[in-house]
Fold these 2 entries.
Entry 1:
Amino acid sequence: MYYQPPRALGLIVGTALVLWSASIAFLLVTAALSAQSGLVAFLAYAGSVVAALLTSLFLFWTYSLATLSYALDRNGLVITWGAARQLIPLQAIERLVPGSAAGVPKVQGVSWWGHHVGHAEVPRLGPVLYYSTHQTAEQVLYVITSDRNYAITMEDAAGFAREVQERQELGPTAEVTHRVERSGHLLHTVLADPRARWMALAAIVGLALVWLQIALRYDSLPATLTLGFPPNTSDAVVNVTGREALLEPPRIATLLLVIDLALGTLLHAWDRMAGYLILGAGVAVQVGVFAALAIALRG
């Protein structure tokens, strides 16, 4: 048996959130292009990146809602939400509790009108993992198992309960273990590793500091610069260049960071230490570019 809960309201709200965040990103990019350079441009570009990331999250969550479904057979109940599949052995289901009897607390996680995926503590039931589109408590059905508890939205709760009982009496045709399956394995391995997460975040923050350093000083620089290497030495090789040349190192650092994050994610799934090495190199590159620009601007 295959079930899909009502999703119209949640999809409308999710689409509105995607359009809202995308509009903010577009307006900030427009403001950054108008400012051209300086701190205002940096802040506008940084805000547009945040808004674009938020747009991606809203888009992924809305897509996941569109795929939300419950599949029931003699072996188990499978809850699908985007890249995640919760596999619940049918024999592990102990009882079904209507939401009207237990109540529905606030869900911590992805939660807006018509879309609730996350955790909550329900009185008398304990921790519950929600994959629901409920608007009222009557639309919630709690699936109580020997391992963990779930909340789903089922329009015909009585009919679903009969289907579960009938299949439990027939018995399983294959062994099913209680587990979570995820697609997008490469990205998940990095996100699930705290050290890899912090290294990636450090590299991103490093790049932001590189651009911020340029943004704070760019407008005060003369149109042409005299750069010497090594700096502050009498026999330095001198080069006269326009100040726009200082934008090249941050641009290269940005490209290198994109490559580093992609390669680090790929290698981390194959060998964790190799992933750490690449991500660490990404941090070192950003530190090096920041230091080089600081020396050039001071000189």
Entry 2:
Amino acid sequence: MEYALFYAEGDEPIAYVPAQDDIGDWVDDLGRRGASEYGERLRPDHDATTVRVRDGRLLVTDGPFTESKESIGGFDIIDVADLDEAIEIASRHPAAAFGRVEVRPFMRWPDADPAARVVPADFLERTASGRRYLMLVVAESSERRAVIGDDGGSEAATAEDAAAAAAAPAEAAASDDPDAWVTEMDARGTRLFGEVLHGPDDATFVSRRQGELLVSDGPFAESKEWIAGFDLLEVRDLAEAIEVASKHPMASGGILELRPLWPFDVHDDHTARARREADERGVRLEPPAAEALDAAIGAAL
């Protein structure tokens, strides 16, 4: 079974101690077990950009969709025997010791190839040809269970979603078909992979405190927003990422959060790395959202 692991500070974070970071050993163990498909660190939440379409207007803002303590700092996609193994793997990630790990199963479609995986088999051998962003597909209400399908997927939406889509201008209607969006972005080469996640009721949260493993089920802190799925994008710049996100079906009924990847050497001296990165952790390195939006509009004219 495939699971996504999301890393965040959570409600009661403990100070991160770089000297205790054993992420290299964790990654090596996943490799030996054949459990890892792909994972990456994300730029801090200052570099997040959120995209919405409301009443036909494209709205772009700096920052994440949720408060800082719940902002995702990285992710992994793993393929394991069952939830118990996923929890065991999550519990040994360094983030479990100072924050928390969210374990979410991927949706499996009835007509999907049983051998198919979220991450293409040759993905790790591909050379990046642009800037890569994780695009989080966020539903704004725990009462809405809109599901945007991947290849062979489907969409189930509430009357509220349908009304919002009807209020959008005619040119946005072409984006309301999730399969059409996937087909277009795959053809453009901007979507590398992506998939839908089971809802927050199927989430499991894992942390370690004073040697004790803490596991809880269900939605975290009654959040009004939840991650319904994600796609990995490869684009020229933030402006193109905004344009791609604005065409996603959930832009008119939810939120799209764009997070640039932040690769690092897992076997580095993490104390030295933390010192090198200290100055850029509290500032936005991405262009301002308004500037990127202007560029996206200009490119479309």
